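Q: Here's a chain of 204 amino acids. Please give me its 3D structure as tokens.
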Amino acid sequence: MSVLEYLENHLPTKKAVAIIDYTARHNCTLRITRPRKTKRGDFRQLGIKQSITINQDSNSFRFLFTLIHELAHLETFIQHKNQVKPHGIEWKSNFKKLYDYFEMDEEFSVDNYILLAVKSELKNPKACSGINVNLEQAFAIHDREQGILLDQLSIGDFFMFRENKYKKLETRRSRVVCLNITNNRKYTINRAVKIQRIENGFFI
């Protein structure tokens, strides 16, 4: 499947073509990749060329939001090269500008709950996808695989994440301190990740 065909699974053809044209105009290669555990998308500058990769995602809302996030990096690089912060005010401004330029309200307004969450995030876009718990909760409603977010557990609850058993210890700003039951080490995990809760030894 070509990149254009993949975009057409999430967008009207006119908008999909507009995004392909936009990246080509800026000498940028757009690729769709298999889901990665550590990131949903990235932007790279490769000599005189640029590259954007976006994870495959059956959830159109999350996919499109990630796409605009990375396109904003491209726009910021075209304007300022590497002379500004990756997620500084210039990137935030371009995030909002490209969201409007590609008329994304039309796509997110299918679900008013998601539209409101997106509008709230656009006031001050975060550097990392998945940090805004309210936005992730809104997106998660449309995931094929349902589950709960780590943020929804109580302190002391047990859960499975990436085939490891943890205990939730402490919530910080955007992450949660958790105890790995196998090696007895503490880790910080994003509040918005999807997990499997364990209760009385059973997944629920």
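Q: Can you summarize the key feature?
A: The CA atoms of residues 58 and 143 lie 7 Å apart.
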